[in-house]
Design brief:
Helix 4 packs across helix 5, helix 5 packs parallel to helix 6 and helix 12 packs parallel to helix 13. By secondary structure, the protein is of the alpha/beta class. Helices cover 34% and strands 24% of the residues. Strand 7, helix 6 and strand 8 form a beta-alpha-beta unit. It contains 14 helices and 18 strands. It starts with a strand and ends in an 11-residue tail after the last helix. The chain folds into 2 domains: 219 residues, Rossmann fold (3-Layer(aba) Sandwich); 144 residues, Rossmann fold (3-Layer(aba) Sandwich).
Length: 404
């Protein structure tokens, strides 16, 4: 376990963060999030004893780090920082062996136990098959696993990671974080990792350390942070970007002025990608009738669409259909996304046909059979072309790019 009490940290005697009180238990994975230059790296370096505290105390397993020798701290705290040197001409086994430095004799000769710990670290990181490869031959994701294995070879009680998945592809990011979580629980290691990928932090972390404005707050769960509107306030997500607590994701919401408006008859998740495509292309859109709580409802609302809604678990009422028809009258075209139809939303099929009867060009995406169709699209790429064709035939104004 690692604990900070009234900790202040910074450079040249000037604090970057102050009044930090936190503790991380064995087996926990705690993510550190916050804006750029908020002090995340400063906090991690101070917890790892790479920076001396300007005030307060750091405890590891109940002992203050100020009373520990460097060798003792190296046995207790493993770290992977962004600026660590990477000896590219060494083999993976040799690099991971460097983690045994706090345990070896003055000649740094590996004992049988040292070698066992190196192999254990390689296995925990899932890279035993790379042991004889040179670091220079590996991908970025593989090299990062090697650095984590080197830290694990120290047999630490605390593992500190600074942006461990930055610049990696999505699969490598998830693999590394899942590996760290698993090893933390199996070995009983307290893990503290700074992450710029807030969506990953919210999904992966057991708890959150939030750094902002020189202060540090500890949340007992990512869900607590989200429920309090934390992501929106922390990153200033308003205007052209916003955060969905339901989807746990950041959405781009362009400001669109002028241009044609489209009406989307969707539901059951069939419209989410369509809404995103239209927003990206610069189209305004209205949509309905969507049940409250439908994923399409959340995505359309986040992207700034006009949403005609019905209460959850209630059949779409004639009044909701009337409001949707009224909204569609000002639209240059309509799109039916072939949503799954059941007793509660069967009125949407009739809505699409009624829109077509009113003379509004109707495009169908998918296999649905609807009367009055002027164009069909099998894919989103086809849909984009169909929209352009229909609007051109209707002598509509071409879509405007999103204005920032």
């Amino acid at each position: 376990m690692i604990e900070a009490v009234d900790l202040s940290a910074g450079y040249g005697g000037r604090p970057v963060i102050a009044g930090v009180n936190l503790s991380v238990r064995r087996g926990e994975f705690v993510a550190v999030i916050g804006p750029n230059a908020a002090g995340k790296t400063t906090l991690l370096k101070t917890l790892a004893n790479l920076l001396k505290p300007l005030g307060g105390v750091v405890y590891i397993s109940g002992t203050t780090t100020s009373r520990m020798a460097a060798r003792e701290i190296a046995r207790l705290v493993g770290s992977v920082l962004t600026e660590q040197p990477r000896p590219t001409q060494l083999t993976v086994f040799e690099v991971v062996s460097l983690g045994r430095y706090p345990y070896t004799n003055p000649m740094h000769t590996l004992t049988g136990r040292d070698r066992s710990e190196v192999w254990r670290a390689l296995a925990d990181a899932g890279i035993t098959h790379l042991s004889s490869r040179r670091l220079s031959e590996l991908s970025d994701g593989q090299r990062q696993k090697v650095m984590i294995a080197r830290a694990l070879a120290q047999e630490p009680r605390v593992l500190i990671l600074d942006e461990p998945v930055t610049y990696l592809d999505p699969k490598a990011r998830v693999e590394i974080l899942l590996t760290v979580k698993r090893v933390a629980r199996e070995r009983g290691i307290a893990v503290i990792a700074s992450l710029h990928e807030v969506e990953l932090a919210l999904r992966m972390a057991d708890r959150l350390i939030v750094v902002s404005g020189g202060r540090v707050a500890l949340y007992d769960s990512p869900e607590e942070f989200v429920a309090l509107g934390g992501p929106i306030h922390l990153y200033g997500l308003d205007g052209e970007s916003t955060f969905s607590p339901e989807l746990m994701s950041v959405e781009f919401r362009p400001r669109i002025e002028g241009g044609p408006r489209l009406f989307i008859v969707a539901g059951g998740g069939s419209g989410s990608l369509v809404y995103r495509m239209l927003a990206r292309l610069g189209y305004q859109f209205s949509t309905g009738v969507l049940h409250e709580g439908d994923i399409d409802y959340y995505v359309a609302s986040l992207l700034g669409g006009v949403v005609i809604t019905e209460q959850a678990f209630q059949p779409i009422s004639p009044e909701s259909v009337r409001r949707a028809l009224e909204e569609s009258r000002d639209c240059a075209a309509a799109i039916y996304t072939s949503p799954p139809i059941g007793p509660l939303n069967s009125a949407n099929h009739i809505l699409a046909e009624t829109i077509a009867q009113q003379g509004i060009p109707l495009i169908v995406l998918g296999p649905a059979e609807v009367k009055g169709v002027v164009a069909r699209a099998r894919s989103l790429a086809d849909l984009s072309k169909s929209i352009e064709m229909v609007l051109e035939n209707s002598r509509a104004v071409e879509p405007l790019s999103a204005k920032r």
